[in-house]
Amino acid sequence: MYTTFTKKKCASDKVKPISACFFFNKFDELNVSIIKPKKDRCDVCCGYETKNVTEEVYKKHIEKKKAARLEKEADKKLAIVEKITVLTVDLQSVKVCPKVQASAVYYETKLCCHNFTVYNLATHEVTCYWWHECEGELQASNFASCLVDYIQEKVPKTIPLVIFSDGCTAQNRNSIMANALLDLAMKENIVITQKFLGKGPYPNGA
Q1: Which of 3, 57, 168, 185 is most solvent-facing, going by the fewest CB within 10 Å?
Q2: All structural domains of the chain
Q3: pLDDT at 204
């Protein structure tokens, strides 16, 4: 943060930056700090740290994790040179609307909102499909509709498509999603490959 402050903010304003010591002392004075986001840990990694998972199981887990990263990186390189299109899809945490502090309002007016995100690894373009519980539920048909809509609108039909997702049955790994993608592949005459990630993450099927 201090580097950004000195090299960008002060440089653009053409002013002399304050010292790092004064900068961080001001943080303490205002009683503010930078939050470090938590990193998701899978059950195997956490279990190994608490001695509930054996060394052998943990090593196999790490090998699969490395293999998944290599596979994803290889697909990303192909996507950058436009030989394939690579998407990652995921459902974000449920958001409650409106976001208020008053408990009475919270229980009387809250709506659960859902955000299904599609990310293009090569272009870094993100598309979010957002709906609340009155508009749709968390069913396979909802996610299939979102993904098919994205592919029809934003994916080139001249190269193969690879989709990375977790193995959640309700969202991605089900017959409704598979049939929707199969139907689209036949109509558009393209190859669509689904790659599911297990805990870690690592591939547990495609």
Answers
A1: 3
A2: 1-37 (no CATH), 43-205 (3.30.420)
A3: 43
